[in-house]
Here is the input.
Amino acid sequence: MRDFIAGRNSKGELRSTYKPGVTSARLDRILPEFASTALRAAMADYNKRMKGFVSEQAMIVGVESKTSAPVSLPRSQTFESLSHPGLFPTGEGAGFAGGIVSAALDGVRVGQAVIAHVLT
Here is the structure.
C-alpha cells in the first residue's frame, strides 16, 4: 500500500494468505488517474482515522470491478417476477443491486418474501 501511495513498484518477497499468490504491479498504471488519485487520498484519510491502516504490511490485492446489470427483471412489491410467477429475481444479475453488500441485502429481503409466499 505504501508503494502504491508513493507511486512505485513493490520490491522483495510479497507474502500474502491469498491462495493464488500475489505479484507486484503498479496499480496506478492499471487504473485511470482519477481512480488512483482518489484511492491515494482515501487511504491517507483513512489512515488518519485508523492509525496503522497504511503500513509496510498493508497490501492491496486485486481490483474488484463493480457494475450493475444492464437489464432488470421487473418484480412486484412482493418481489415476485411480474412475467414468471414463482420466480423471485434477486441481486445484481437481476438488476436489483450494484455490489456484494446490496446484493446480500436484496437476497435477505427476497428470501423473506419467498418464505411468506410459501407459507400463504
